[in-house]
Write a structure and sequence with these properties.
Blueprint: H1 3-18, H2 26-32, H3 40-52, H4 65-68, H5 73-91, H6 98-109, H7 116-122, H8 124-132, H9 141-159, H10 168-188, H11 193-215, H12 221-228, H13 232-241
Length: 252
């Protein structure tokens, strides 16, 4: 199927949803896409696409139990066993107040390396939460968490002594989420063309929203490229495909 034609149909589907009070059932979506011969997995990506455009799909929620069924039983058991053990370990970590965590950040940014492990530890729960946003997209949640933790450790180590950092929490969130997006995008490259297109458009829409929350403005194409690890030419291609639904800013 022609990529431009496919994305145009997706845009028309979103507009159809607008006429129905921003609600589309799975049956309506399946009927609309009946001539496209989409697989169940591709339909899940269509649900995610319209959801990113604020169209509610009753019965669909990213990361819910129905989508979990798409994973193999062995994958689910592996995730369950790992998360059960890992979450128990996180519960045993010392809880710190917001003021105590901010003090750890201050000492880290002053260059005191002995506080690197404590800052990393203070953000481990957050990595699990961020990783959960990208589950059921071809990468095991276990792997997302592990890679997120590695990126967290790298980010904190590099931040040590960098007094120019104004918000350490945002700095860590940015680094971890950027790595998670990169992992999912790598997986999308191995999928069929339609799944790859929808998956990447969804990633870019999520990324623009995350950066807008972080910066308080629309991110530039350079910032979006750095965050998602996608080439600017590739991002521009998807912007064109979606008739500028992926919004780009001009900076501060």
């Amino acid at each position: 199927m022609d990529q431009n034609k496919f994305l145009k149909q997706m845009q028309e589907l979103v507009e159809f949803g607008r006429t129905k009070d921003n609600v589309l059932t799975k049956e309506e979506i399946a009927d609309y896409c009946s001539d496209m011969s989409l697989t169940d997995k591709q339909l899940e990506l269509v649900y995610a696409y319209v959801k990113e455009h604020q169209i509610h799909v009753p019965g669909y929620k990213a990361g819910d139990d129905d989508q979990e069924k798409e994973s193999s039983e062995s994958e689910k058991k592996a995730d369950s066993k790992y998360l059960r053990i890992y979450k128990q370990e996180l519960k045993e970590l010392e809880e710190r107040t917001e003021e105590e965590v901010e003090e750890l950040y201050r000492l880290l940014l002053e260059g005191k390396e002995e506080y690197i492990p404590l800052v990393v530890e203070s953000h481990l729960h957050r990595v699990v939460k961020l990783a959960g946003k990208y589950k059921n997209r071809g990468v095991l949640l276990e792997d997302l968490i592990q890679e997120g933790n590695l990126e967290l450790m790298s980010c904190v180590s590099m931040a040590c002594g960098n007094s120019e950092i104004k918000d350490m929490k945002k700095e860590m969130d940015h680094a971890v989420q950027s790595r998670l997006i990169e992992l999912v995008d790598e997986q999308l490259q191995d999928q069929d063309s339609l799944s790859s297109i929808l998956g990447r458009v969804n990633l870019l829409l999520e990324a623009t929203r995350a950066l807008a929350e972080e910066y308080g403005r629309v991110a530039t194409i350079e910032e979006l490229s750095d965050f998602t690890h996608m080439d600017m030419d590739e991002i521009n291609m998807y912007v064109d495909f979606t008739d500028n639904k992926i919004e780009l800013g001009k900076g501060e």
